[in-house]
Amino acid sequence: ILAQVGLCRAATGPSLLELITSMADVAATQLYSGGDSLPAFQATQDAPMEQAAGGEATDEPEKKRRGKPKDPYAPPRPKNAYSRFTGEHRERLKTERPELASDLAGMGKALAEEWNKVPQETKDTMTAEYEKEMAIWKPKWADYKLTDHYKTFLELKTDYLDGKARKKLVKTMNKDAPKRPKSGYMIYAGTVREKVMEECKQQGLGMGDGARKISEGWNALSEVQKAKYAEESANQKVVFDVEWLKYQKTDQYKAYMEAKAKLEAKQQLKKLIRTKMDEAPKRAPSAFSLFRSTVLRSITEANQSKPESEKLAMGGIAKLCAQKWTELPEQKRKEFGETALRLKDEYDEKLKEFKRKIGYTEFLEQRQKIKARENKQVNLREMPKRPKSVFAMYAADHKNEVTPGKGEGKGTSALKQKFLGVTAEEKLAYEAKERELKEEWARQVQDFKDGDKYKAYIKTTKVIKLEFTNEAMKVSTMRFLSEAPAPPARSPFALFLNEKRKADTKEGEDGSANKKIKREEVVNAKSAWLKLDRNVRLGYEIDRKEQLKIYEGEIKAFMESEKWTEYVKEAKRLRIPVKHLMLHKKKVVKGLKGTVASVPVPRRPDSYPQKGKSALQIFVAEKRGEVGSQIQVAEMWENLGEEGQRPYKEAAIAQKKEYEQSMTEFKQNDEGKTYFREVKTAQRRRRVIKAKNSYLKDMPKKPVSAVSLWVKENYAKLKKENPLLKGFELKAKVGQSWKDLDPEEKAEFEAKGKQRVAEYLESEKQFKASQNWQSYLRATRVKKMGKSKAKAKSFPGPPKPASMPKKPLNAFQSFMSAKSGDGANKSLAEMTKLFSNLSADEKKEYLDEAQKRVTQYHQDMEEWHKSEAGKKYLRDTVVFNKRKRTTDARNKYLKNEPKKPPGAYQIFVEENRPKILQELPAGSNVMKEIGERWTALSASEKERYVELEKEKREEFNESMTAFKSTPDYKRYMAVMNSVQGKNKVKATPVAKGPAKPDALPKKPLTSFFQFIAEERARNTDGDSSIKAMNQKWLALGAEGQKEYVDKVNELNRQYEKDMVEFNRSAEGKKYLREKGASEKKSRIAAARHKHLEGPDAPVEPKRPPSSYFIFVSERKSSISAEGDKPGDVAKKLTEAWSAMDADEKKTFDDKALELKKKYDEDLAEYRNSPGYKNYMRVFNAVSGTAARAKNARAKAKAVAAKSRGKPAKTSAASKDSDSDSDEMGSESGSDSSSDSDSD
C-alpha cells in the first residue's frame, strides 16, 4: 500500500485522498467478498496508476460523478427477476426499434410488454434464483455496514439526499420566483434542440449524442454570432435583477427563506448527531423489549409458514408479542425486569463515561451554534440593515472611476487613496447623509424590536442558552468535579435519614431502590423524626455543623488543585456559571449592590457571650465519643431517671445564669454598645434599601448638565479626530473644547439643560405628592421611643394632585381676604355683619368677581377631568369611597356578627399551650413545638378535635343563619350591593309571574323520569346517578319500558282534564289573567332593554329646565352666603326672582325657549330612530293598542260609507290601518285612546 501511495503522488486521475481511502479499506472489503481478490474499484484505478508509474500524465482531470452516489465497496445487491430481464433485452430493443433510444417512456412500455410474454414457470425460476442470491448477500451486507467505509459513504449519500430535499423545497415554495436568465449557449441550444433531437431519432442515436451535436454546433459559430446570444442573455439578466428585487419583498419569498433555514438547521443537527454521537452507547432495552427479542424470531417464522391470507401484518405481530408478555408468569417477568435494570445501570455508566469526553462538549457547542443560526435566520431576516458608512457611500458613488481588481492602485485600495483627497465640504455632506440614514435606521430597528419576530428571537435565544447551560454544567461537573469531596447533609433530618438507611441496609446489599420505595422511606423517617425529642434533633444539628467544618477544609484543599483550575477555565470558555462548592451562600455579597443582602449584619465580637446548653445537650456532648447514634444517646438519657438527670439540669441552670450575667455586662461595656449600635444601623440601612426598591422605582432621575449633553453628542467625533490621544488626554481635550465653544452654541446646550432641570423639578414635585413617596417616608421614619399604641386604622382619601385646579373663594371669603388686615381680631359673626352692611354696588362687585371665578373654575375642572391625572384621581376617589362605605357599614352593622369557630388545630393549641409553656425552657419556639406535637398525633387522637370543630361549626352556622335574618345584616348587604353595583339591572329584565295556586294541576313526568323516581324510591342505597339509571332504562327494552309509557299516557290524559276544569274555575281564570298580564310586561320590558337600553340605542333627550331654574343655576352661588341653610337660600332666590321686572326675566325666558326648541328637535329625532320605532311596534302589538286603533278606523270608515250609501271595504281598511300603525309608531298609540275607551 505504501508503494502505491508513492505512485499516487504523480497520478492526476483520482484524488490522493480517494486512492488512500480505497487502499486502506481493502482488508474490510475482503471481509465480505469471500476471497483474496481486490475489489472491482481498485481494478478500475490500475490503468491510471500504471500510466503514472510510466511517467505519462493525462491533461484532463476526471469528471465529477453526477447523480446519486454509489458505493464501490458495497457488495452488489442481486437484481430481481424483472430487473435482470430488462437489462438483457434493452440493447436488443434499441437495435430492433431505434426510436426507443431517446424515448424513455416508450422503452419502459416495450420492456413491460416483453416481460408479460415470458412464461410464469420461467419467472418463478428467475425469482427462486434471486432469493438464493439474496440469502448469500444479506450476511455480507450486514458485515459491510460495520465498516468505516460504509459510514463515510452513508454521509455522502445523506448529503446528496439533503441536497435533493433543498431542491424540492425550492420547487414547491419558490416556484413563482422569476427564472434565472439563460446563458448564450442555453439560448442557442433552445433554438436548435428540437431539430437536432429529430435527426438523432431518425439515426437511432441517444440523448447524449444530441447534446454532443448541439455543443459541436455552438463551437462552430463565429464570435459575432455568439455575441448576439450573449447580448440577449445580458438583457434577460437586467430584467431578472429587477423582478428578483420585487420578488424578494413578497410573503412567498419570506416563507420560503424561513422554511429553508429550518430545513438546513434540521439537516445539520441530524448530521451532527450522526458524526459526533456515533460512539454514544445504545439505550438499554426495557423488560418487554428483552422478552420480545426472544420470541419475535419464532413468531415471525411461524407467520411465514402460514398461508398468504392468514399471515399477520406488523401490527398483528406486535399485538401477539404483547399478548404473550401478559401471559408470562410473574417470576419470568421479574427476571426480565432485573436484567433490564442491570442493563440500564450499565447504560448509565457508559453514558456518563461518554459525556466526560471532550467530543460531547464539542457536540453541545456545535448544536447551540446551529440552533442560534436558525433562530437568527428565521426571526431576524427582516431586521433593517445598518446603513453604509461615509467611505462606503463615497466608494459606491466613485467605484466606476478606478480600475477594478485587487492590489495596490486597484479597487478598494485605489478608492481609499482617492478618499483622502476629498474636500471638507463633500465629507460633511456625506456625514450629514450618514447621520440621517442612521436616525432612520434606528427608528426602523426600534419598530422591529417592538414586533413579534424580535420578541420570538429573544425568547428562543433564552431557551437555547438555558438548554446549553444546563447540559454543559452537568457535563463539566462530571468531567472535573467527580473527585471533589461529597457535601455533607443539608439538614439535620437528612443526617438522620442517612443514619437510618445505613442501619436498615443489610450486609451485602447495595442499598439501591426505586423511587417509590425511597419515597415511602422518607415519609416513614419523617414520622420518626417528629417523634424524637427536641434536644435529640438539636444534637443532629450539632453533628451536621461539625461535618460541615470538615467538608469546608477538604473543599478548600480541592479548590487549590489543578483540576479546579481546569474546571474554572472550561466554565469561562463555555460561559457557564461556576458551581459554588462552599455551602455558606449567605456570605457571598458580591454583585448584590442595591439589595438588602449588600448590607451585612456586623460580625459578633469574640467577647460576645455564648448561650448556655440545655441539660440534654451537656449529656450528649459528654457521651458523643462513646455512642455514635443520637437515638441511642436519647435512650440513655431517658434511662437515667430524675436522679441521674439532676446534675445535668443543675449545670444547665448554672450556664444559663452565667450567660444572662455575661450578656448584661456585655451590653454595658463599650464593645457591646458599639456592636448593638452597628446592628441597629445595619437594620436601618436595610430598611431604607428595601423601601427604595419598593417605592422609589418611578422617582424621576436627576438630569445631566449642559456640559454632559454637549459631551454626549461630540465625544465620538472628538475621539475619531484624535485617535492617538489616551483616555486622560482626550478628557482634557473635551474639557478645553467646551471652554472654547462659541457662546451661542454653548447657550443652546445651557438652555436645554435648564429646560431639563425645570422638567425634573416639576416631575419631582408631582412624585412627592404621590402615595409612593408617602409610603417611603413612613417606612424610613425613625420610630420614637415611649410612644403610645398606634391609632385605629384609618383610610385617608387619595391626595389631590398638584395639577388639580383649586376651588375659588366665594364673595364672602373674598371680602374676608380683602379685609384681613382691618379685621384681624374680629370674629366670624362680626365679619358676616360687615358683609351684610355693604352697599348693593359693593356687594354686586364681590358677587360678580366670585361668579367669574366659579365659571373659570368649572371650565378648568372640566378640562382637568379629561387629563390622565384627572381620570386617575376620579378612579382613586371612587375606589376610596367604596372602601370607606364598606368599612363603615361593617363597623356599624356587623358588631354582633358571630365569630368564626376555631379549627381542630386551634382547639388543640388552646388546650395544650399552657402545658407546653411550662415544659419548655424560656425563649423556646412554642408554636413550632405545638405544630410538631400536632403532627405526631395519630388519626384517632385527632378525631376528638375534629368532632369538636364540627360541633362548633354547626353552632356557628345556626347563629349565622339567625344573624342573617336581622335588620343589621340586611342593611349591611344593601350597602354592599350598592357598592358592588349589584342593584343595577344589566341583564334583560324579566317580570316576575304570579304565584302558582295550589289548585293548579302539576304536569306529569316523562316515562324515563317516572322510571327514575320509582327506582330511586325502591333502591335508596344503590347508584342513583343519571348514567346508571340510563343504563337500567336501556336494559328494560321496549317491553319493560311499555309499562311506564302507558302509565305516563294515563297521567297526561288526567292532567289535560284537570287543566280544563281549572281553567273554568274562578281561581284558574284569575291566574290566567295575571299570567297574561305578567307576560305582556315581560315582553315590553325585554323590548325596552333590547331597543332602548343597549350601547347603540337612541338616548331620550332630557326635558329642559324652565326660566326660573335657569335663573337659579346661574345666581345661586352669588346669592348664597357662608353658613346659609338650603331653605334660606331658596327663599332668597324666590324673592330675587319676584323682584325682577319683565325685561330681566325675558332673558331667561328666551334661554328657556331656545332649550325647548332644541329639546323638541331632539325628541322628534329620537322618536324617528329605528330603535324607538321597533320598541313602539312591540309595545302596540303586546298592549293591543294597534288592534284597537285598526278597529276604530274600520268602524269610522263604515259609518262614513253608510252616510254616503256605499258599503265599507273592511279588508282594505284593515290593510291601510296596518300600514299606518307600522309607519307612525307612537302616534298610533296616542290616537286610539278614545276608541279603546268606547270599545
UniProtKB/TrEMBL annotation:
GO cellular component: nucleus
Domain HMG box: 75-145, 178-248, 281-355, 384-449, 609-667, 700-768, 805-865, 898-964, 1001-1063, 1101-1167
Keyword Repeat: no
GO MF annotation list: DNA binding
Gene3D superfamilies hit by this protein: High mobility group box domain
Domain of life: Eukaryota
Organism from which the protein derives: Noctiluca scintillans (Sea sparkle)
Classification via SUPFAM superfamilies: HMG-box (SSF47095)
Keyword vocabulary terms for this entry: DNA-binding, Nucleus
Family annotation (SMART domains): HMG
Biased composition (Basic and acidic residues): 86-96, 1071-1082
Keyword Transmembrane assigned: no
UniProt-annotated stretches for the region Disordered: 39-96, 1071-1105, 1192-1239
Listed InterPro entries: HMG_box_dom (IPR009071), HMG_box_dom_sf (IPR036910), HMGB (IPR050342)
Protein name from the UniProt record: HMG box domain-containing protein
DNA-binding region: 75-145, 178-248, 281-355, 384-449, 609-667, 700-768, 805-865, 898-964, 1001-1063, 1101-1167
PROSITE patterns: HMG_BOX_2 (PS50118)
Signal sequence range: none
